[in-house]
Amino acid sequence: MDVRLEREALNGYLDDVFPQIRGRVRAIDVAPGVVRAEYLAAEGDLRPGGTVSGPAMFMLADCAFYMVVLSALGREALAVTTNCSINFLRKPAPGRLEAEARILKLGKTLCVGDVLIRSAGVAGPVAQASLTYSIPPRRSDMG
Amino acid sequence: MDVRLEREALNGYLDDVFPQIRGRVRAIDVAPGVVRAEYLAAEGDLRPGGTVSGPAMFMLADCAFYMVVLSALGREALAVTTNCSINFLRKPAPGRLEAEARILKLGKTLCVGDVLIRSAGVAGPVAQASLTYSIPPRRSDMG
Amino acid sequence: MDVRLEREALNGYLDDVFPQIRGRVRAIDVAPGVVRAEYLAAEGDLRPGGTVSGPAMFMLADCAFYMVVLSALGREALAVTTNCSINFLRKPAPGRLEAEARILKLGKTLCVGDVLIRSAGVAGPVAQASLTYSIPPRRSDMG
Amino acid sequence: MDVRLEREALNGYLDDVFPQIRGRVRAIDVAPGVVRAEYLAAEGDLRPGGTVSGPAMFMLADCAFYMVVLSALGREALAVTTNCSINFLRKPAPGRLEAEARILKLGKTLCVGDVLIRSAGVAGPVAQASLTYSIPPRRSDMG
């Protein structure tokens, strides 16, 4: 697996296509088939008690996996999430989360992998997710 | 299974504990073990092209299932999501979504069920989710 | 969705391709997008206490969903399981199980659906599964 | 996390409680929170073409995770599978499979983790599974 989109290009591309999450999710490290991303919770992502909400952790898992798919396929990829199974393991602390997304299989039509989310100051992961993305044929492949 | 929390009480309770989603997710029908809820997408939930985002559909599935758990257990329930497996089936239209959440098993420590999400104007469901909630012992049960 | 393979043809086809399960899993009803199948536990499927094992219930869910995919696509389908998320809800009784498999989305490359398994004499379902099958292009489609 | 049941004790215990799989699944390495297990396919586990069937890989994932739960909780554990989400990634070769099961969270009532299955001669994992086990209170805890 090659890296076709490096960290800065990845972050720039995401800001363009998802302006809603600008500045909240950033790739911090990109290697073949693995992306580490960080997340800074916005006000609306917090639950009573200051913990990060389930939907916000889902968003982080999905976004980190999208990054690793993009890093492997390049910018034109039209990949979309078809399945996500997420386990919530521990209550995250209010601050920064870090996600490590890994590709387990990059096929012609499907990409499958997993994501582990950690929270600063919490021992053990706060969430684990497995994701499947569908990869539609590129226009250029279709003649 | 009894209904311990009727529709209006359910909506009022959710507004209190999750002010972020006030007016966006509402129970429209509550029966034993089944809740139908509707969702009106906010600006930030939309993806390019106007479709509702994956995290927003996850939030709706989780919220609809939380409602059916509350409706069965009553207001003091401290149930938390431990697992959600969600399949994205079709691109939803920008407008209103409707979710039907159903309890398949209400045990002492776990509640398991599923949610089907439909989008006005789209034939066939747009998402299907299976969820597990953990039910901690009530304070009153612990002496 | 049409029924391209009726009950008897479906059972005959499965006996040919999976002789190991001959006589253990049978379609009992086939309608568009829905197949009901029954399962008679073999000795090796039972756990101490006479209950049906998890792997045997997984096999039934997978097999019932394969049947409904075949019923919709016809005999030449080369569909393979890519994901199964299964919830074990209640202890099944030793006897006959019945599975209802339903297609939620039949796309060009993926078929997604769910299965509910019931056990004679047990109130409420004993297992629920969501499955995704990948549908490779047919030879005839590839020229 | 301690190891409360070492490799030989683990294999002996499994042979006692699951005589059906005797000699087919064996722990080969036990460390805190991680068990590696091997699997030798029996005739009935093979699909046309000699590949290992989905239910057999499910059984291996479930069994390897049961081993790591037992290794952490000790022999009296009554843990039962409540959820398994399994992704089938590549066609395994007919021979030996190896599974690595890991605990991500060991709580009072739930244990969550994942399993990666590899096949000799196949580059990349053949299956990935996430599992949740429910841990009933021990008799001794109940007075």
- Biggest beta-sheet profile of chain A: 6 strands, antiparallel
% residues in beta strands of chain A: 35-45%
Query: Greatest chain-chain interface?
Result: A-B, 21 and 21 residues
User: What's the CATH architecture name of chain A?
Assistant: Roll
| Succession of helices and strands of chain A | HEEHEEEE
Low-confidence stretches of chain A: none
Write the layout of secondary structure elements.
Four copies of one chain form a homotetramer.
Chain A: H1 7-17, E1 25-31, E2 34-40, H2 54-73, E3 80-88, E4 96-106, E5 110-119, E6 127-134
Antiparallel strand pairs in A: 1-2, 2-4, 3-6, 4-5, 5-6
Offer a quick outline of the entry:
Chain A is of the alpha+beta class and about 140 residues long.
Offer a few descriptive terms.
alpha+beta, Thiol Ester Dehydrase, Chain A, 6 strands, 143 residues, globular, homotetramer, 2 helices, six-stranded antiparallel sheet
Describe this structure in words.
Four copies of one chain form a homotetramer. By secondary structure, the first copy, chain A, is α+β, with helices and mostly antiparallel strands. The first copy, chain A, has a single domain, classed as Thiol Ester Dehydrase, Chain A (Roll). The first copy, chain A, has helices at residues 7-17, 54-73, and strands at residues 25-31, 34-40, 80-88, 96-106, 110-119, 127-134. In chain A, strands 1-2-4-5-6-3 form a six-stranded antiparallel sheet. The radius of gyration of chain A is 15 Å and the shape is globular. Helix content of chain A is 22%, strand content 36%. Chain A starts with 6 loop residues before the first helix and ends in a 9-residue tail after the last strand. The mean pLDDT of chain A is 88. The relative contact order of chain A is 0.20. The longest helix of chain A is centred in the middle third of the chain and has 20 residues, at 54-73. The first copy, chain A, has two helices and six strands; from the N terminus they run H-E-E-H-E-E-E-E. Strand 3 of chain A pairs antiparallel with strand 3 (80-88) of chain B.
